Amino acid sequence: TIVEDNETVIFGDFSHYVIRRCLNPILMRLEERYAEFFQTGFVMFERWDSDLINGATTPLAVISHNLV
C-alpha cells in the first residue's frame, strides 16, 4: 500500500548496493501444535540487511508520495 512518505521507486546505479545475510537460516519443526491432526508444521526464519556503499559518489533518486 502506498502511504505518505513511502518510497516506491528508486532509480540509479545499484552496483554499489550490497545485500548481506546477517543470520543463517533457522528451520523449526512444530510437531506438538499439529499432533492432534497427525500433521507437522515448519517455520523458517532468515535475516538479511542491505546498504548503499559509498552513496556520496553514486546517489540514488527516490520517488516518494505525499498524500494530501
Overview features:
two-stranded antiparallel ribbon, 68 residues, two-stranded antiparallel sheet
Structure notes:
The protein is mainly beta. The chain has one domain (6-65). The protein has no helices and four strands. It has strands at 6-12, 17-30, 41-52, 60-65. The strands form two sheets. The protein has a two-stranded antiparallel ribbon. It is elongated, with a radius of gyration of 20 Å.
Q: How are strands sequenced across the largest beta sheet?
A: 1-4
Shape: elongated
**Rg calc:** 20 Å
Give unreliable regions as ranges.
none
Task: Look at the structure and give the mean pLDDT.
Answer: 84
Q: What's the tally of helices? A: 0
How many β strands by DSSP?
Answer: 4
**Percentage of residues in helical conformation:** under 10%
The N- to C-terminal Cα distance equals: 16 Å
**Main sheet characteristics:** 2 strands, antiparallel
* Beta-strand percentage range: over 45%
Helix and strand element order: EEEE
The domain tally reads 1
What structural class is derived from the secondary structure elements?
Answer: mainly beta
Keywords: Virion
Subcellular location: Virion
Topology:
Layout: E1 6-12, E2 17-30, E3 41-52, E4 60-65
Antiparallel strand pairs: 1-4, 2-3
Give a quick precis of the structure.
It contains no helices and 4 strands. It has 68 residues and is mainly β.
